[in-house]
TrEMBL record:
<dbReference type="InterPro" id="IPR025110">
    <property type="entry name" value="AMP-bd_C"/>
</dbReference>
<dbReference type="InterPro" id="IPR000873">
    <property type="entry name" value="AMP-dep_synth/lig_dom"/>
</dbReference>
<dbReference type="Pfam" id="PF13193">
    <property type="entry name" value="AMP-binding_C"/>
</dbReference>
<feature type="domain" description="AMP-dependent synthetase/ligase">
    <location>
        <begin position="34"/>
        <end position="395"/>
    </location>
</feature>
<dbReference type="InterPro" id="IPR020845">
    <property type="entry name" value="AMP-binding_CS"/>
</dbReference>
<dbReference type="InterPro" id="IPR050237">
    <property type="entry name" value="ATP-dep_AMP-bd_enzyme"/>
</dbReference>
<dbReference type="InterPro" id="IPR011963">
    <property type="entry name" value="DHB_AMP_lig"/>
</dbReference>
<protein>
    <submittedName>
        <fullName>(2,3-dihydroxybenzoyl)adenylate synthase</fullName>
    </submittedName>
</protein>
<dbReference type="InterPro" id="IPR045851">
    <property type="entry name" value="AMP-bd_C_sf"/>
</dbReference>
<comment type="pathway">
    <text>Siderophore biosynthesis.</text>
</comment>
<feature type="domain" description="AMP-binding enzyme C-terminal">
    <location>
        <begin position="446"/>
        <end position="521"/>
    </location>
</feature>
<dbReference type="Pfam" id="PF00501">
    <property type="entry name" value="AMP-binding"/>
</dbReference>
<keyword id="KW-0436">Ligase</keyword>
Amino acid sequence: MSDFLAHCTPWPEAMAAEYRSKGYWRGQTFSALLDERVEQYGERLAVVSGQTRWSYRDLAAEADYLAKGFSALGIGPKDRVVVQLPNCAEFFAVIFALFRIGALPIFALPAHRKLEISYFCQHAEAVAYIIADQHGGFDYRNLASEVKAVSPSLQHVLVLGDAGPFTALHDLAAGPLPEPPKASDVAFFQLSGGSTGTPKLIPRTHDDYIYSLRGSAEICQLSPESVYLCVLPAGHNFALSSPGSLGVFYAGGTVVLSSNSSPDHVFPLIAAERVSISALVPPLVPIWLDAAASLQADLSSLKVVQVGGARFNSEMAARLVRELDCTLQQVFGMAEGLVNYTRYNDSDALVLHTQGRPISPDDEICVVDDEDQPLPIGEVGHLLTRGPYTIHGYYRAAEHNARSFTADGFYRTGDLVRQTAEGYLVVEGRAKDQINRGGEKISAEEVEHLLLAHQGVADVAIVAMPDAFLGEKSCAFVIRRDASLRAVELNAYLRKLGIAAYKIPDRIEFIDAFPKTGVGKVSKKILRQMIEQQLLVLS
Ligand code: OOB
């Protein structure tokens, strides 16, 4: 194993000492947290998924079985494990098992394919990859075979369901458990939305993440009575911790999981389980609202709907409040750390028109100009942040870290924001080279690199284009080498390489030359204006 810790940047000792002395970091691990909840709420319902209903005691027993099983396979402290499971109860048994033995999950999205998964395995030298046999019409065992062939570190593929040539999660021997990890250790890796050629891994510690859960659970007033519906991918930071499933476990409540976010599926679930809170990305909101009006569903238990992950327009926000008769909470967060919430007793103006304020009084917010100079309150600038649950560096990314963090440890979010007099943030735009496709983030550079490798492509630039439903979609401007090259060919090429479907450009425009900026760089601003104009003419 390479020197793992050398690749993660810890908080400076003085800041860590301050966060401990202020009681933010309390020295508790996830495993200890689950044990504590079993003691307090053993028989209460922790997880509901399909026919599965686990109490806190059941969840801990499942995690214990898997922890011993993983140990028997030789998976141990600091080993990286790529976890790619759909929303199901076993997701939590798996991650608590990994937390118990100090192994480090990497939370892949169900949509990731060969290129992404093999990159995670190679970059983090993962020893195991955990999947479901099939989900959403896709066979993850075939994907695992492809990934295994190119990932020398990968020793185990563990499968929920029918294992095929691999090892079944339900069929593990029991090995001795290692010493538990320390709370200051890295607990897992989140994935960065990314704006570079390769995705970045975000190391989060037990201490920092549990602090963000506790803060989130307090802000969201969670209690053992809370019932959270998890419809976004369970491993994504929003659904996991804002307050997400882990915040609900923190409070002793119940998590109801669904891989399907469509109203026909979730509305009966909301009624049957008396769901009190859920988290959505903006494109789901009109779908739920339209269906709520026509389906006559009983949504009376639903007290709070959180919306975040992408820009949410204030007309739709007002419609949500009016039509669902519940509290709207806007959430502006990032897997790197900082999460902002509007509060339940905030004025309509704040809830409808801002993206909230940070969890912690010690979240430092700086809004700066292009030269890193602080701007007066109310002006739009780059958001920099530092605090008790925001990382100081990506995993194994020294060069990128030098650009993504200031010398004094502030994370450059890439978001353009303004701060209101009350200290609330309004997201005005983005400086990073990313497309936010209804909450799914696409790094332009990552997909550009792949397209450039196609022999028919001379040059390419990918930009966001407006979309009424998703907010943004992606448009690739391509300079061809060969005039016979067609868009369908490029899409098929990307699909064959094996990337998540949401990264495949929604539109490809062939162009003879790129517009340039004053200093001779490709002007993505002009490209965005060009496609916007073109869409206007077409509509
Ligand atoms: C969440 O996390 P990520 O890591 O997938 O994406 C973070 C980025 C932010 O930097 C920002 O560009 C965008 O997503 N974003 C929003 C937003 N919430 C996130 N842009 C506008 N309005 C919002 N409300 O997306 C995430 C993590 C935790 C909680 C919520 C969202």
